[in-house]
Design goal:
heterodimer; A: 198 residues; alpha+beta; 36% helix; 30% strand; B: 173 residues; alpha/beta; 2 helices
């Protein structure tokens, strides 16, 4: 693993709090984007080794939509939002003000919408973490992919292996006035989330 | 990452999953070895039709010099390829008879405006070709690259290898 002398350290509780605030802000951003009221109804955070990462978003052959971005700044890392396809399609419908069920696949337009969603959700999440930690985190443009969970996670792991030791999986359930939506944030930070700071 | 150099234990035609960083070697047993959801990972399938020894390795990274923990495992292509061959030879296979097929190495995460930072997929492909050539073996069939994940199945009774992408046909390699 690469050792970065400057990498920030958070104790587990602080990291959990930052991740929760970040998730809440991210949903606020999403709510603004799709112009729908959204409330976070469940939040749970799980720290797993990279080897066990796939289980966070489903079985290896489950079809998943992933929105992936890198972040740089005072710390580096990887961020992925993962949704079941029908959830992602529903979010596209909301963002484009289409009747529910209109989106059935991901074309260029739908990928662009999800990419913008990744921009907003990722930026709100990272800004909240950065503000709380007093650091700067800058997101990359997002990549949108729909494929098998194992293939997506395996590719993220391969990219992250040299610099990240563990993965924070955040299960987030949020609701609009007429439906419940479940999504996952996968955060692979190149900063220590276990040891006490200082 | 589990180093799973094991003789698969399963009934006839039972499917055994070969996870990331794992390998399976089977002698004279009709089974289906499966690697589900290969992204940038590489799967190598090898078969000796005379000794009836079959093996599959599911490798994550090109080189044990990167992200290595010092152990020899199937996680890295440069170690995983010779390790699979070695385990097959131990069970009676002959290098000269091995039919080797390689798949995987998809570039799944293309960020607009950025080159793939580590380009793991392409490096995995190169590492696999190099490692197999180093063993003096010719690759019989290869299906690598692109931007879609793959699931690969190997039928150990015949050495037949099938590859499927999401929404695609199950194609023999």
């Amino acid at each position: 693993m690469t050792t970065n002398k400057l990498k920030p350290r958070f104790d587990a509780t602080s990291w959990s709090n930052l991740a929760q605030i970040g998730s809440s802000r991210a949903i606020s951003g999403l709510s603004e984007m799709v112009n729908q009221e959204m409330t976070v109804t469940a939040f749970s955070l799980e720290e797993v080794s990279l080897e066990n990462a796939t289980s966070l978003i489903g079985q290896a052959d489950d079809l998943v939509v992933g929105i992936y971005l890198l972040f740089t700044g005072n710390a580096t890392g990887h961020l992925m939002l993962a949704f079941q396809p029908e959830i992602a399609f529903g979010l596209v419908d909301m963002a484009m003000d289409l009747p529910s069920g209109s989106t059935q696949d991901l074309g260029e337009m739908e990928r662009s919408v999800l990419g913008e969603m990744g921009n907003i959700v990722g930026s709100f999440f990272l800004n909240a973490v950065a503000d709380g930690a007093g650091i700067s985190l800058i997101p990359s443009p997002p990549a949108v992919v729909m494929d098998m969970a194992g293939a997506i996670i395996g590719s993220v792991m391969a990219e992250a292996w040299e610099e990240c030791e563990s993965l924070t999986g955040i299960r987030l359930v949020f609701s609009t006035p007429d439906r419940q939506i479940e999504g996952r944030f996968l955060v692979l930070p190149n900063f220590d989330t276990q040891e006490t700071s200082g | 990452m589990t180093l799973a150099v094991v003789d698969a234990i399963a009934g006839p035609d039972e499917s055994v999953t070969v996870g990331m960083g794992e390998m399976q070697v089977v002698k004279d047993r009709p089974m289906v070895l499966t690697s589900i959801g290969l992204g940038s990972c590489i799967a190598m399938c090898a078969y000796d039709p005379v000794a009836k020894v079959a093996g599959m390795s599911h490798m994550l990274l090109p080189s044990s010099a990167e992200g290595g923990d010092g152990k020899v495992s199937a996680k890295h292509v440069d170690k995983g390829v010779p390790l699979l061959i070695e385990e097959m030879v131990k069970r009676g296979a002959a290098k000269s008879r091995l039919v080797v097929k390689i798949t995987g190495g998809a570039q799944m995460l293309r960020i607009p405006g950025l080159l793939p930072r580590l380009n793991v997929a392409d490096r995995n492909i190169d590492a696999a070709k190099t490692a197999v050539a180093k063993e003096g073996i010719r690759v019989a069939a290869i299906d690598v690259g692109g931007d879609s994940g793959r699931t690969v199945q190997m039928f150990t009774a015949s050495g037949k290898v099938m590859v499927k992408k999401v929404g695609g046909e199950n194609v023999e390699l």
